[in-house]
Amino acid sequence: MMQPDMFACARSEVGLGPGAVLLGGFALDEAEALLAEIAPLAAISPFRHMTTRSGGRLAVAMFNCGETGWISDGRGYRYQSTDPQTGDRWPALPPRFLDLAARAAAAARYPGFVPDACLVNRYDAQTRLSLHQDMDERDHDAPIVSVSLGLSAAFLWGGLTRSDRPRRHPVHHGDVVVWGGPSRMIFHGVDSVEKGTHPATGPWRYNLTFRKAR
Ligand code: SIN
Ligand code: FE2
After folding, report:
1. Which atom of ligand 1 is nearest to the CA of 189?
2. Non-local CB neighbours of 112 within 8 Å, separated by 6+ positions
3. Does the beta carbon of 146 lie inside 6 Å of ligand 1?
4. For the chain: N or C, fewer Cβ within 10 A?
């Protein structure tokens, strides 16, 4: 029998650049189910504010699920298979996460995407994420799949150098951005999370970033 999930599709598609697309509403029908996965995962690996090499504190609260996870600490940025806070492996990627990531990637013309890492980010209305490239992954052939849940935000989409002035694209509950190929190393970030409360998440914006890191 066909799964209802098979019919998920983008309600709007905005091309951000070569190999990069914002799939508006792609995950809207399953957004509540995706959110329901977060609390049990966070019971294993809690949200935390990681530190930076220079001793700062990341404004975005995060944890990982998957075979490996992105971390930042006094030694810098890297991936590792265990959660430094618990000493245990990160919780496994829920099948629902894997399935969505693969379907979104395929819709953006990256068939066969099998992520091994999912960074779960949590923002409040004061939180920003400055322009950066996702460059700690070993595999730069695979795309990045980024799912927005809860409060809306402005997604910053820049160029291949930090000085390229970014465009602002609103991202809402259920939107998915996929970038790869010639856009894989584009500078991106998050600005101005909407103030207020979202029916599904209250005061938070969540983002699931799927990557093939190893
Ligand atoms: C990220 O670039 O790691 C997160 C992007 C987002 O929250 O939309
Ligand atoms: Fe990123």
Report:
1. 2
2. 102, 106
3. yes
4. N
